[in-house]
Amino acid sequence: MKRWRKKPDVHQVTDARPSLSADIQRREVSYLIKMGIRTICLILAVVVPVPWPYRLLFIAGAVFLPYIAVIGANERGMDVPPPTFQTPEANQSEIPRHRREIGS
């Protein structure tokens, strides 16, 4: 009687995470875009004569966008999908290496 073994998982290059420099560049661009929108909101709130509800909306954008930008810039690798491979099951009949005695 043959024992059928589970085929080993093959890892693909697409499972790899992006490089650190690519991740940093993505976060920097995202931060700069959000801070640019904040600057526009600040200018619109001060310079442009608009009714108060719109002015309050611009002020809220100028106040809360820095917080959102910093939180987004500190999230490292959040857009990377989780790996698709399965962790292999341990062989229960084998004693793990860290549990073996010196004389065995």
UniProtKB/TrEMBL annotation:
The source's domain of life comes to Bacteria
TM region positions: 31-50, 56-73
Region Disordered, residue ranges: 80-104
Keywords recorded for this protein, A-Z: Membrane, Transmembrane, Transmembrane helix
Pfam families membership: DUF3099
Q: What is this protein called?
A: DUF3099 domain-containing protein
Question: Could you tell me which species this protein originates from?
Answer: Nonomuraea roseoviolacea subsp. carminata
